[in-house]
Design a protein that fits this description.
Length: 284
C-alpha cells in the first residue's frame, strides 16, 4: 500500500518536472528517460539487488516477450503524457488517469475474473457517461483514452509477470534502450540534440531516470501484491494532483462544459471509493 501511494504521488507531481524541460522535444525527453532509467537500474542492481533475476529470464523467452509488450505500453504512455504537458493539455491527460482506475476494474473483471459489485457497475457507467459527455463536446478525447488504456493494460500485464519489480523494469528499459540511444545519436549527428547545449537541461534530463524508475518500481511492487481493483483505487491520487497543477499552476482553461465531464468522473470515483470502503469493513 505504501509503495502504491508513493508511486502515484510522484506521478502526480511529475508535470512540474516535465514543464521545466518543456524546451526539449517530447521524443528526446522520452529517449532520455529510457537511457537514464537503464543506467540508474543497472547501478541499483549492481550495488544492491544483484543480477540473478536476469539469469533466470534467459530460460523464459515468453516472459521476455511479455516484458517487451509492457515496455511498448509504457513508452507510448510516456510519450503522449510528456507531449500533452508541452502542448498545455495536462487537463485532458489528467482525465485519462481519472478514468484509469475504472479501466483497471473492467480489466480485472475481464481477464482476472474479479467480480464487479453493483456499485462498481454504477461507477463504471458514470465514468462512461463522463467520457461520452466529453466526446459530445469536443470529439473523442484521444489523449485521455490512450493514457487510460495503455496504463491499464500495463498494470494488468505486470501483475501477471512473475519477475521482481527492479529486474522487470530493467529488462523493459534494456529492450527499448537501443532505439532510444539510436535516436539520440541521430539527433546529435543532425545537430539538434538538446543535451549538451545548456547547463539547465544537462542537469535536469538525467533526473528523468530516477523520476521514471523509482515510481515504476514502486508501482510494480504494489501491483503484484494488491488486488487490481485496489491499485485502481489508489491511482486517482496522481490525476488529482495533475488536475490541481493544470488549473492552479499552469492556468489551463477550465470551463463549465469540462466541469460537467469531470464531475461525472469524480462522482463515479466517489461511488467506487464508497464501495471499496464498505467491502473492506470486517464482517461482524
Amino acid at each position: 500500500m505504501l509503495a502504491g501511494l508513493a508511486a502515484f504521488t510522484i506521478w502526480g507531481l511529475a508535470p512540474l518536472y516535465f514543464k521545466a524541460v518543456a524546451s526539449v522535444p517530447p521524443m528526446e525527453v522520452v529517449a532520455h528517460r529510457v537511457i537514464w532509467s537503464a543506467l540508474f537500474l543497472a547501478a541499483l542492481l549492481a550495488c544492491w539487488l544483484g543480477f540473478g533475476g536476469l539469469a533466470r529470464l534467459r530460460a523464459q523467452p515468453r516472459l521476455v516477450g511479455l516484458l517487451a509488450l509492457t515496455a511498448t505500453l509504457t513508452g507510448g504512455n510516456w510519450l503522449v503524457f510528456v507531449w500533452a504537458i508541452s502542448a498545455d493539455r495536462l487537463l485532458e491527460a489528467s482525465l485519462g488517469y481519472f478514468i484509469n482506475p475504472l479501466v483497471s476494474v473492467l480489466l480485472g473483471r475481464l481477464f482476472l475474473g474479479e467480480r464487479l459489485r453493483p456499485l462498481q457497475q454504477l461507477a463504471v457507467g458514470l465514468a462512461c457517461a463522463g467520457v461520452l459527455w466529453r466526446i459530445g463536446q469536443v470529439g473523442t478525447p484521444w489523449i485521455a483514452l490512450f493514457l487510460a488504456l495503455t496504463f491499464g493494460f500495463y498494470g494488468l500485464l505486470r501483475k501477471r509477470a512473475p519477475v521482481d519489480a527492479a529486474t522487470g523494469l530493467f529488462v523493459e528499459t534494456l529492450i527499448t534502450a537501443p532505439l532510444a540511444l539510436g535516436y539520440l545519436l541521430w539527433l546529435g549527428a543532425a545537430g539538434t540534440l538538446s543535451f549538451g547545449h545548456g547547463a539547465h537541461t544537462d542537469w535536469l534530463l538525467p533526473i528523468a531516470g530516477v523520476l521514471t524508475a523509482v515510481p515504476l518500481m514502486l508501482f510494480a511492487v504494489g501491483a503484484q501484491r494488491l488486488p487490481l481493483s485496489t491499485v485502481g483505487f489508489l491511482q486517482y491520487l496522481a490525476p488529482t494532483l495533475n488536475f490541481l497543477i493544470a488549473v492552479l499552476v499552469f492556468r489551463e482553461p477550465f470551463d463549465a462544459g469540462q466541469l460537467i465531464g469531470f464531475v461525472l468522473i469524480w462522482v463515479a470515483l466517489a461511488v467506487y471509493s464508497a464501495d471499496m470502503l464498505r467491502a473492506g469493513r470486517p464482517r461482524r
